[in-house]
Give the backbone structure.
Amino acid sequence: MELVVLSGKGGTGKTTIANALSELARDVIRVDCDVDAPNFYLYYDGEDIEKKDF
Amino acid sequence: MIIAVLSGKGGTGKTTVSTNLAISLNANYVDCDVEEPNGFLFFKPNIDEIFEVEEEYPIINKDKCVGCGKCVKVCNFNALAKVKENVLVFDKLCHSCGACQFVCKSGAIDYKKRVIGRIESGSAYGLRVKQGILNIGEPMAVPVIKALLNSVNKNQVNVIDCPPGTSCNVVNTLKFSDFAVLVTEPSNFGLHDLKLAVELVKIFDKPFGVVINKDDGKENIIKNIAGITILTY
């Protein structure tokens, strides 16, 4: 199952809602597609384990 | 004089700041957030001029095409693909550079125009106001932004409401400007994206200042960053 969170306007709370929803799921992958200014990772402590150039 | 109002993060108050700034300075207002322009909701201008923004894309003449695939190889934007003997055109990916037509030895490529958005101009509160609108589903905003900025009178004071982020859309607007106002909010997200925006204005060596919106007057994480000028909060 893939769930997408979007909004026309900025700053409405896409990341907040996406994070809250993801916390409700037991087995989940969180994907931040806001590649211009990704913020999702700020919710979690951790470090990069893999990096790939595109 | 061109003042660009930008922010890494969306929803920090670019449109609020830029519309008010335009009114205070008696300046023209230009909404470059062509994907979702909102400034006209404040101004409610009488629109007196509209022109369409067109982009060119290639048309393959099948009778002349010999299927050599040179056009596909030269295209930097993957707007052309060869499927068996046919060349497929993905018009929305085309950047109208003309390379495919240039390399085609058979003269099988012509260019056609299609409308991707429009520019609207009008008057409100004694100011000239403009906005660009990118048609829904169109992936490339830059041609609309360029057309909008080309229509700006640089001898007057212009306040430009930028799109969010730090990509091409913002870069094109920033390059055009003399001063940048970075609007942020006192949250971790605001701080994170402000740093991206500061990095961007420094690359282009533009003078800039920061407006902290949604500030409650107390100490916050934005006020203590070194190397930035806080204009107001």
